[in-house]
Write a structure and sequence with these properties.
about 400 residues; Aspartate Aminotransferase, domain 1; Aspartate Aminotransferase, domain 2; 4-stranded antiparallel β-sheet; 14 strands; globular
Length: about 400
């Protein structure tokens, strides 16, 4: 067996199942899950119709690069959304969801023969970043989120020696689980560090279309263009249809940016067997070319957060995030979030995810684990169900006083 597999940590949901295996929730309350960030709004009819109409395409092998029409649809969306013009042929590559691409990029760009090969990740973080780094033979360096910065990562906390060893930096904006969006000044900081040390920036932007204010979140390609980096040097942006279009089962997204990096990534993917099926490509074209369903989806989330957030503010340290569909809620008084979440499940049958399961301990940092004392609430269920969950959380928290 590959010895690097032993370096992987159990996935957060697996750890949470083990920690709650002994709990028997009350039978009189229907279960409500806010633990997994899986979109549960209806899939738009136009995407379902495109899937059905494309079924004859199952008789053909797809190319790894994807159909030109899909490249054009993606580039068109990027231009409408960010005002960025891409070469569809060289600066866009369809992928089977952002998750597999985030993992695969590390296998492409990491040179584990270089001493101290390092991947920098935010903390808390999406676990794929760490797994990708470890299986590529690199070590990880974590950057804690800073409550004083709206829970954005404090990149200035990384020392020069670490940056010098860094080959890949994962950025998540809007962030999971914090919902924080990186401003232009932070992008400039990271681009300058990348120029100095030569590392690749992988920008995970799968929550970019779920936001609560009038201005849409700044994207990495948009930031690069604003700073005169039209070649997107050492930058790859990742976007998915899963959250934007409520099709997590479609497994469709794209990467865009540095043409030289995408050329190498395409070579890797050709051997890896990562071609997107023709039927999925056709459905993806329909999705990227339509914005009406995205606006309607965003309004559903805004309605939920407008109802739920004020309720939870009464009992938790929480506020409306910049974007994404999570609330990163603090337990008032610095309580143990694992014990708190276990009690919520046992007494009120509401499942949330303790923050420390989404983060790693950082010796010398206070708190030791940046997720300590916080829980992630994924408001993906229908409005009525999320509202009921919030009411139960209020009742539970008030009962602890």
């Amino acid at each position: 067996m590959n010895p690097l597999l032993a370096r992987l940590h159990p996935y957060p949901f697996e750890r949470w199942r083990e920690l709650t295996r002994d709990i028997v929730p009350p039978a009189g309350l229907a279960p409500i899950s806010l633990s997994i960030g899986e979109p549960r709004h209806a899939t738009p009819a136009l995407i379902e119709q495109a899937l059905v109409q494309a079924l004859p395409g199952l008789s053909s092998y797809p190319s790894t690069a994807g159909e030109p029409a899909l490249h054009e649809a993606i580039a068109g969306w990027v231009q409408r959304r960010y005002g960025v013009v891409l070469d569809p042929a060289s600066q866009v590559l369809p992928v089977n969801g952002s998750r597999e691409a985030l993992f695969a990029l590390a296998q492409t760009v990491i040179d584990a023969t270089r001493p101290g090969a390092t991947v920098v990740c935010p903390n808390p973080f999406y676990q794929i970043y760490e797994g990708a780094a470890l299986l590529a033979g690199a070590q990880t360096a974590f950057v804690a989120s800073d409550p004083a910065r709206g829970h954005a990562a404090d990149w200035g906390a990384v020392d020069a020696a670490t940056w010098a060893r860094t080959q890949l930096l994962y950025v998540c904006s809007p962030g999971n689980p914090t919902g924080a969006v990186m401003p232009l000044a932070q992008w400039q900081q990271l681009f300058e560090l990348s120029d100095r040390h030569g590392f690749v920036i992988a920008s995970d932007e799968c929550y970019s279309e779920i936001y609560f204010r009038d201005e849409a979140p700044l994207g990495s390609l948009q930031a690069a263009r604003a700073l005169g980096r039209d070649d997107f040097r050492n930058l790859v942006a990742f976007t998915s249809l899963s959250k934007r279009s409520n099709v997590p089962g479609l497994r469709s997204g794209f990467v865009a940016g540095d043409a030289a990096l995408l050329k190498a990534f395409l070579l890797y993917r050709t051997y890896h067997g990562s071609a997107m099926g023709p039927v999925v490509q056709r459905a993806s074209i329909a999705a990227w070319n339509d914005e009406a369903h995205v606006v309607a989806n965003r309004e559903l989330y805004r309605a939920k957060f407008a109802l739920v957030t004020p309720l939870l503010e009464r009992v938790l340290d929480v506020k409306l995030p910049d974007a994404a569909f999570y609330l990163w809620a603090g337990i008032r008084g610095g309580g143990d979030e694992v014990a708190w979440a276990r009690g919520l499940l046992a007494q009120y049958n509401v499942n949330v995810l303790p923050g420390r399961l989404l983060a790693r301990d950082m010796p010398g940092h206070s708190p030791l684990n940046p997720g300590q004392g916080r829980v992630r609430l994924a408001l993906v269920a229908p409005v009525a169900e999320c509202l009921q969950a919030a009411q139960r959380i209020v009742s539970y928290t008030e009962s602890l006083r």
